[in-house]
């Protein structure tokens, strides 16, 4: 399986002199640090549930365009040294230098660069790309590289276990060390004899599920002993294992236990005092299914469960019934997922060295047993020019630069076990990927679940992997192919041709994906031709990981391959405070779709108010799909997620970390259909999550315990006091004003009468001819509203209910303060809000005068704190604009983000700025903001570090507050 280091060195001496590194972003003689403006910030982090300050470091140095969230997470997660000591890192320069200079030194020592000048260019380009958030390495690189700690660079590990007690106990030990280091591991338990087979002593074997208990308890103990996140692990069992049914139902039965204990009054929330009594909660479970099994499911045939000792059939089951049990368990508790064994191994580049049996915890890395993979992800939005074209040439160059760095890291990396180190050094598996696909699709006017969106995603993914393997052949020409290549050469070249053939099958639809596909086609041609001559440096090159913490480091709107989580986001401000803003890609998308500035402004304000685009003023229904999200009113359909995965899977060495979300109303049959379609569409792995299926997942006040029910019953038995509102009549002589208006060409009159204190007390609407039915209805409506106002119903209640109400006549108005209206009611109550509500109240509803909007565009800020005389708002919003604008520029002057052209052009942000509003004190993340819009608790755990509601990232969860993840990347 391996070759000696001596042979590898001997082979390298006959290779080329080294790589020539070309400049992408940098200028000769100018260091990247000298091209940006630096500022010092105070970083503080609190636990929102307890109010406790959990971290504080003052005077940390970051570029002025890095958001507060990015700088906070990097400072708390990645800076090394004890806070308050001279050893503590004080800024981003130190962090980047610690990593980059280690890579440069190793590259020189191992002969990667043709000259010292090439090494310097490599250093500057890598520094620039990290500084400008164009890509990021996975977290272990930032934790360990350049420190006195072991230089572990991998986040993902695959272990192995055999059918012996020594091997099982060694599994516990190795997994424990990996968890202790904050990483995750996966393994396949199928070699362990089932509980239906005999031991050599004559007794009955315990079976793999029994041994899972010990491993689960170990993981839980290590987590609670020091780590602040759940242990990340994956347990896989082959579908033909005799204990497969027990394995499938294991976590579902534990979920029943959680319900029973919860109803008895025990604290069964994730992290609760009593949840530790429940087993198997520290792992993701997956069933490894074969094509034979899936065909038997389709045909309704029988399927044999085989002995681990001699392969004989121990039991025959109905394949369709077993698949239904798998789907039912997933319906009940989201486990198990599915891994498609034959598809995985058909794309295996090193089959002569062993099969692929398992994956890492998030299911994106799949390779040989006892191996590891280091990850890095590119920020796709950084390659989108201001003219909405994708810079495919720069994307390819950056991919090649990053792959070079990732391969260099294996030269100096440390590994948790010698077996893992040996396999990784011999096969050099890499996992380059990307983030912000969802944001890129939205910004360019592509629906996530659309043919155009899938064509663009497929083209980008094909170019990513094609460029990676192209550079892999070039590195092989310099320092030799991976040690295991010789025995796997035919298989590896076959897989390269499969990727190339899949690229040829892409059907482009627009100029953007056509151009990217052209670069991908050229890259794959070079991969196949150069691979014949030089071989490949890496057995694997690409995966699509969750990009949790590093996604925040790059200020990404979306993670991995995921669509946008929601249209309204939570943002922190420098110096404290927070805002809720409409995603800045939305105005860009609307502009690309051809909408006028006035319409864009109206749509953005509607989204800020409602959190979705349904019935947004002026938005065409055929464009709704562009703004579909993972959660919310227009959530992407389950098959929409599956189809996107299928579009990109043929261009990945590994797999995709992603969960297919289903509504709570989804059936077992629908989950079964998703699993079957995933197989037919060529996926390697698939996981599902049905809303509210897990009792112990959300830490919330959702379900009442038995104790709470008792308190509720006592409350219901108490005497009831009834309060009735009193009518406050208007004086006989009162002040009123009449406003004439026109909506969509139809004219009307609004008369509003007030009390002596100026408070609104009555309205009269005249619309249409006197005596008509419409006039009568308007009179009745006016009386009803007037009486309610006099009984104390707040005007803002009516404004909230009647604005954005849609019916004809609708369209342009003659009122400069309300440019468009969806109906007469929409106009009337917007006008009343402007005339009778204070600025704070109507600003929160997104209702502003023409003068206020003009002032906002001139200053790039909005009076968040209340009145125009408030002295504090200016500083808050200057901080806000720095934290949310592209490239860190303020809203009135956003620089071009075209790669290689930063600062070359200025364009106004336009309608997007009007969407900024103060976030409530009860909101600390985008997930909690979505809860506010939906009016229900989100299905996600609370972060154990800072108490913030986490949100999905691939198959895992990530915390916006502190960057903690429940996975391994």
From TrEMBL:
<dbReference type="GO" id="GO:0031419">
    <property type="term" value="F:cobalamin binding"/>
</dbReference>
<comment type="similarity">
    <text>Belongs to the ribonucleoside diphosphate reductase class-2 family.</text>
</comment>
<dbReference type="InterPro" id="IPR013678">
    <property type="entry name" value="RNR_2_N"/>
</dbReference>
<feature type="region of interest" description="Disordered">
    <location>
        <begin position="856"/>
        <end position="920"/>
    </location>
</feature>
<keyword id="KW-0237">DNA synthesis</keyword>
<keyword id="KW-0547">Nucleotide-binding</keyword>
<keyword id="KW-1015">Disulfide bond</keyword>
<feature type="domain" description="TSCPD">
    <location>
        <begin position="731"/>
        <end position="835"/>
    </location>
</feature>
<dbReference type="Pfam" id="PF12637">
    <property type="entry name" value="TSCPD"/>
</dbReference>
<keyword id="KW-0846">Cobalamin</keyword>
<feature type="region of interest" description="Disordered">
    <location>
        <begin position="699"/>
        <end position="719"/>
    </location>
</feature>
<feature type="compositionally biased region" description="Acidic residues">
    <location>
        <begin position="866"/>
        <end position="877"/>
    </location>
</feature>
<dbReference type="InterPro" id="IPR000788">
    <property type="entry name" value="RNR_lg_C"/>
</dbReference>
<dbReference type="Pfam" id="PF02867">
    <property type="entry name" value="Ribonuc_red_lgC"/>
</dbReference>
<dbReference type="InterPro" id="IPR013344">
    <property type="entry name" value="RNR_NrdJ/NrdZ"/>
</dbReference>
<dbReference type="InterPro" id="IPR024434">
    <property type="entry name" value="TSCPD_dom"/>
</dbReference>
<feature type="compositionally biased region" description="Low complexity">
    <location>
        <begin position="909"/>
        <end position="918"/>
    </location>
</feature>
<keyword id="KW-0170">Cobalt</keyword>
<dbReference type="GO" id="GO:0000166">
    <property type="term" value="F:nucleotide binding"/>
</dbReference>
<dbReference type="GO" id="GO:0050897">
    <property type="term" value="F:cobalt ion binding"/>
</dbReference>
<dbReference type="GO" id="GO:0071897">
    <property type="term" value="P:DNA biosynthetic process"/>
</dbReference>
<dbReference type="InterPro" id="IPR050862">
    <property type="entry name" value="RdRp_reductase_class-2"/>
</dbReference>
<feature type="compositionally biased region" description="Basic and acidic residues">
    <location>
        <begin position="889"/>
        <end position="905"/>
    </location>
</feature>
<feature type="domain" description="Ribonucleotide reductase large subunit C-terminal">
    <location>
        <begin position="154"/>
        <end position="689"/>
    </location>
</feature>
<keyword id="KW-0560">Oxidoreductase</keyword>
<dbReference type="GO" id="GO:0004748">
    <property type="term" value="F:ribonucleoside-diphosphate reductase activity, thioredoxin disulfide as acceptor"/>
</dbReference>
<protein>
    <recommendedName>
        <fullName>Vitamin B12-dependent ribonucleotide reductase</fullName>
        <ecNumber>1.17.4.1</ecNumber>
    </recommendedName>
</protein>
<feature type="domain" description="Ribonucleotide reductase class II vitamin B12-dependent N-terminal">
    <location>
        <begin position="41"/>
        <end position="133"/>
    </location>
</feature>
<comment type="function">
    <text>Catalyzes the reduction of ribonucleotides to deoxyribonucleotides. May function to provide a pool of deoxyribonucleotide precursors for DNA repair during oxygen limitation and/or for immediate growth after restoration of oxygen.</text>
</comment>
<dbReference type="Pfam" id="PF08471">
    <property type="entry name" value="Ribonuc_red_2_N"/>
</dbReference>
């Amino acid at each position: 399986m391996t070759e000696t280091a001596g042979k590898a060195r001997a082979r390298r001496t006959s290779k080329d002199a080294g790589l020539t590194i070309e400049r992408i972003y940098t200028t000769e003689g100018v260091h990247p640090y000298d091209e940006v403006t630096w500022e010092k910030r105070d970083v503080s982090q609190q636990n929102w549930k307890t109010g406790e300050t959990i971290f504080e470091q003052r005077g940390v140095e970051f570029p002025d365009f890095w958001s507060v969230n990015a700088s906070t997470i990097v400072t708390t997660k990645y800076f090394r040294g004890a806070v308050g000591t001279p050893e503590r890192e004080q800024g981003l320069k130190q962090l980047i230098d610690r990593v980059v200079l280690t890579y440069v030194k190793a590259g020189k020592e191992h002969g990667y660069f043709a000259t010292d000048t090439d090494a310097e260019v490599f250093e500057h380009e890598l520094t620039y790309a990290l500084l400008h958030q164009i890509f990021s390495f996975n977290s272990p690189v930032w934790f360990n590289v350049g420190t006195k700690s072991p230089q572990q660079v991998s986040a993902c590990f695959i272990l192995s276990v055999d059918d012996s007690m020594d091997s099982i106990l060694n599994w516990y030990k190795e997994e424990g060390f990996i968890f202790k280091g904050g990483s995750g591991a996966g393994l396949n338990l199928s070699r362990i004899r089932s509980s239906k087979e005999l031991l050599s002593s004559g007794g009955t074997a315990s079976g793999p599920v029994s041994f899972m208990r010990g491993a689960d308890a170990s993981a839980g103990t290590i987590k609670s002993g020091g780590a602040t996140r759940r242990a990340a692990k994956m347990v896989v069992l082959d579908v033909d294992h005799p204990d497969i049914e027990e394995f499938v139902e294991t976590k579902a039965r534990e979920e029943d236990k959680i319900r029973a204990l919860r109803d008895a009054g025990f604290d069964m929330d994730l992290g609760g005092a009593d949840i530790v009594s429940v087993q198997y909660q520290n792992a993701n479970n997956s069933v490894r299914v074969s094509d034979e099994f899936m065909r038997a499911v389709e045909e309704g045939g029988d399927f044999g469960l085989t002995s681990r000792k001699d392969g004989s059939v121990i039991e025959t089951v109905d394949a369709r019934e077993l698949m239904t049990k798998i789907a039912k368990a997933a319906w009940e508790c989201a486990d198990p997922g599915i891994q498609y064994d034959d598809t995985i191994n058909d794309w295996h580049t090193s089959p002569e060295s062993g099969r692929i049996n398992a994956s890492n915890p998030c299911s994106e890395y799949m390779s040989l047993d006892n191996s590891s993979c280091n990850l890095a992800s590119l920020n796709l939005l950084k390659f989108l020019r201001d003219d909405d074209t994708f810079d495919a040439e720069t994307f390819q160059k950056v991919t090649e630069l990053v792959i070079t760095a990732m391969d260099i890291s294996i030269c100096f990396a440390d590994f948790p076990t010698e077996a893992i180190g040996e396999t990784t050094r011999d096969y050099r598996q890499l996992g380059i990927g990307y983030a912000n696909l969802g944001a890129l699709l939205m910004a360019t006017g592509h629906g996530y679940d659309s043919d155009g969106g899938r064509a663009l995603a497929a083209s980008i993914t094909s170019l990513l992997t094609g460029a990676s393997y192209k550079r892999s052949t070039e590195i092989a020409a310099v320092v030799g192919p991976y040690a295991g290549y010789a025995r796997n050469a035919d298989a590896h070249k076959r897989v390269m041709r499969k990727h190339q053939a899949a690229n040829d099958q892409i059907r482009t639809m627009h100029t953007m994906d056509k151009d990217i596909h052209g670069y991908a086609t050229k890259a794959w041609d070079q991969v196949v031709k150069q691979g014949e001559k030089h071989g490949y440096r890496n057995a694997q090159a690409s995966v699509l990981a969750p990009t949790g913490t590093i996604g925040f480091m790059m200020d990404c709107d979306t993670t991995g391959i995921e669509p946008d989580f929601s249209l309204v986001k939570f943002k922190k401000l420098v110096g404290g405070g927070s805002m809720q803003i409409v995603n800045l890609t939305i105005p860009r998308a609307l502009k690309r779709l051809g909408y006028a500035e006035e319409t864009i402004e109206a749509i953005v304000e509607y989204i800020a108010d409602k959190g979705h685009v349904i019935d947004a003023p002026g938005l065409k229904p055929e464009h709704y799909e562009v703004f579909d999200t993972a959660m919310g009113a227009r959530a992407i359909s389950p098959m929409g997620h599956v189809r996107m995965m299928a579009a990109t899977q043929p261009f990945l060495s590994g797999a995709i970390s992603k969960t297919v979300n289903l509504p709570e109303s989804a059936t077992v049959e629908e989950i079964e259909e998703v699993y079957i379609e995933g197989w037919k569409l060529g996926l390697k792995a698939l996981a599902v999550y049905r809303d509210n299926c897990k009792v112990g997942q959300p830490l919330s006040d959702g379900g009442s315990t038995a104790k709470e029910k008792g308190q509720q019953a006592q409350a219901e038995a108490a005497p009831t006091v009834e309060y009735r509102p009193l009518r406050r009549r208007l004086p006989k002589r009162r002040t009123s004003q009449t406003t004439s208006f026109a909506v969509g060409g139809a004219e009307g009159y609004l008369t509003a009468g007030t009390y002596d204190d100026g408070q609104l007390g009555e309205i009269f609407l005249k619309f249409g001819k006197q005596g008509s039915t419409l006039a009568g209805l308007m009179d009745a409506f006016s009386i009803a509203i007037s009486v309610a106002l006099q009984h104390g119903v707040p005007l803002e209640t009516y404004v909230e209910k009647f604005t954005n109400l849609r019916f004809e006549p609708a369209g342009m108005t003659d009122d400069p303060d309300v440019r468009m209206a969806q109906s007469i009611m929409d106009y009337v109550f917007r006008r009343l809000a402007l005339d009778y509500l204070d600025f704070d109240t109507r600003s929160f509803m997104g209702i502003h005068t023409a003068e206020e909007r003009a002032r906002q565009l001139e200053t790039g800020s909005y009076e968040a704190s209340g009145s125009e005389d408030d002295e504090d708002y200016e500083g808050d919003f200057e901080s806000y604009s720095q934290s949310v604008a592209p490239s860190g520029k303020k809203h009135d002057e956003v620089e071009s983000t075209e790669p290689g052209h930063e600062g070359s052009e200025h364009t106004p942000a336009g309608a997007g700025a009007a969407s900024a509003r103060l976030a409530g004190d009860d909101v600390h993340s985008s997930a909690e903001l979505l809860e506010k819009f939906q009016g229900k608790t989100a299905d996600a755990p609370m972060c154990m570090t800072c108490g913030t509601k986490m949100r999905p990232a691939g198959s895992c969860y990530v915390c916006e507050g502190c960057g903690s993840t429940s996975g391994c990347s």
